[in-house]
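Here is the promised in-class demo. Please do not try to memorize the tokens; focus on the logic of going from shape to residues.
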């Protein structure tokens, strides 16, 4: 049976139903105009990207990871997963646009282990240069590389230094700290460089589902100290001579409490780095002055 209503009531009902139907739409519109911008480059629309660059004052993060064995108990992408966790949380606190997953760094020393992606040195530098150049072309005048992988510790300063070889209209900054030197819950281990107590603890925060603490003691992460050379002599094989299983420390000592402390320290440190980079109005100016002088060194005085 069709319900009958007097003409006036029908009009009222129709008006009411239109208002009700319009309400969620109006709410959705309001939400999208005031919605917060994602910090993730790949999640922004083209026009939101423009707003993001403006809001970040041209400051973009490039979290830098790697694919390599992490002991017997952590995933190959540990460094990338951890550094992105820290960088994304930091950028939420101090807005910056964060470049997508990047893991094309230096890891020749783990070529003997399964799952390692070890690009040639020319490609590492060329790809990084094109990546930061392209970031700059899109408005990132300040590129802050947040390093998550110890094997990049020489590559990245070298890359930054090599920016002086020809003019670039942007500055490359590097933040390369991951673990506080002191504070927080007392640590149980002394050797702790790779997949050990600290790194395993941090993974318990960023991706606890990928940590296998029960396997952490399946291999030895002890320092085998097989190379007998003075400390001030460097060789590329040094890491393998000490840690042939690509494991340094003991992941079974990890705790969530240590992870919480270290991850919070890391995020806070990246926030501070973003703020310092945003406030820096000296580097680009002096970099340009340097390029200008470099074009005619004989005129440089005194
Ligand atoms: Zn690592």
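The designed amino acids, position by position:
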């Amino acid at each position: 049976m069709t319900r009958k209503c007097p003409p006036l009531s029908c009009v009222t009902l129709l008006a009411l139903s239109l208002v009700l139907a319009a309400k969620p739409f109006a709410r959705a519109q309001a939400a999208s105009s005031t919605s917060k911008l994602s910090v993730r480059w790949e999640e922004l629309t083209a026009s939101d990207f423009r707003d993001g660059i403006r809001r970040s004052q041209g400051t973009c993060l490039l979290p830098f990871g790697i694919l390599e064995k992490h002991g017997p108990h952590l995933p190959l992408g540990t460094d990338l997963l951890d550094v992105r966790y820290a960088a994304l949380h930091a950028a939420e606190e101090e807005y910056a646009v964060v470049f997508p997953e990047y893991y094309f760094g230096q890891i020749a020393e783990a070529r003997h282990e399964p799952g390692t992606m070890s690009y040639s040195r020319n490609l590492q530098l060329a790809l990084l240069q094109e990546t930061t150049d392209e970031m700059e072309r899109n408005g990132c005048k300040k590129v802050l590389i947040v390093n998550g992988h110890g094997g990049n510790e020489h590559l990245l300063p070298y890359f930054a230094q090599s920016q002086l070889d020809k003019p670039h209209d942007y500055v490359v900054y590097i933040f390369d700290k991951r673990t506080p030197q002191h504070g927080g819950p007392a640590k149980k281990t002394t050797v702790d460089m790779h997949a050990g107590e600290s790194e395993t603890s941090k993974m318990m925060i960023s991706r606890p589902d990928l940590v296998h603490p029960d396997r952490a003691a399946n291999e030895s992460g002890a320092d085998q100290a097989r190379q007998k050379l003075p400390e001030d002599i460097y060789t590329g094989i040094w890491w393998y001579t000490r840690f042939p299983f690509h494991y340094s420390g003991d992941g079974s000592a990890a705790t969530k409490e240590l992870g919480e402390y270290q991850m919070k320290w890391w995020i806070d440190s990246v926030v501070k780095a973003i703020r310092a980079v945003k406030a820096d109005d000296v580097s680009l100016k002096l970099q340009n002055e340097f390029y200008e002088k470099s074009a005619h060194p004989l005129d440089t005085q005194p």
